[in-house]
Amino acid sequence: MKILKEYCLLFFFVLSIIGCKDEKVESKKQRNYQKEKNNLNFDKVLKMSKYEYVYDTSKYGSFFTTSYDYGVLYAPENGNDLGNLVTFLIPKDFLFFEKYSKYFNEDDSEKFETYVNKLSIEEYKKVFDIYVFFIDSKYLIPTPHADCPISVKEKHKTDLYHYKNNSWEKMDSFEVDSDNKDNEEMHWRINFIEKKTKDLQKTFFNSIAKSKIEDSWYRDYILLLDSYEANYNYTYYIKVSKDSCYFVERDFKDLLVPVQKGDTLFLYHKENLLEDREYIKNKHIPEVKIVKLKDKYYVNSPIFNLKESISTKPLKYGFISDEIN
User: Fold this and answer.
1) Cα separation of 169 and 165, whole Å?
2) CA distance 40 to 46
3) Alpha-carbon distance 27 to 199, whole Å?
4) Distance in angstroms (rounded) separating the CA atoms of residues 280 and 315
5) How far, in Å, CA of 150 to CA of 19, rounded?
6) Are 132 and 86 in contact (CB under 8 A)?
7) DSSP secondary structure of 41-60
8) pTM of the full predicted structure?
9) 264 pLDDT band (50/70/90 cuts)?
10) What's the distance, CA 273 to chain centroid?
């Protein structure tokens, strides 16, 4: 369901920009451009409104988008004399959501949106890779009596820009003049953003793949979850070995990557091992934290709310593992 939600969100952004056409469009072949510098400056439209951000994480756990209701529509009277835009912000650091998790929780995303809203344009540029899908105003026509005040011409082009090297560089372009090309253009956007976020994840895991942990961490960790249903226990099971690291809880089985920092072991979600059973809330990475004090191991997880799943109260560092090898 989460994957469906992500793609629906992306489809919503895309269709909101091109969905105001009154007639069918036809297409030409996609034209790929080498990265080039352009005089366009999108700074003035990155923060058109203070309260209209929408964000969500992708399946790779490190991506969120901002949009202004239906994207940034062409409106010279409001300061946007460029065209129609949809903006995507991808954190440069894979652990962005861990670092800034104090601004939000699962039930209160508004705190995080408020934090993002307060960032300046220059802070955006430091923290995020900024990508803009742009339809120039020359491809737009006014439709004041329609639901959408701006419509896209039958033949139009979407340009992709990236803020890099202190300028807005055009990375690619897609020309549309048919319904089939409309669909292709939509997938072109989705595939680009998903690839960028997946690359970010891949780079992170490559960087920690060779990190070493002490042998004392190699063991099984078991917690009994007794609050789901009366008189029925579920097991929260973590396996840390030299060959693999994963956790199992009811219908979920996820591959994790361990990183040791002193007396704490962080387990980062990498891959879902059961088909159609993905538990995607990776903005709360790391998924599992284990603290070692003398001969005791304390387990905690910001993903699974263990306090609601275990009837006994946790100690200072979490719940003591029920089994030590």
Assistant:
1) 9
2) 13
3) 30
4) 27
5) 10
6) yes
7) --GGGTTS-SS-------TT
8) 0.74
9) very high
10) 20
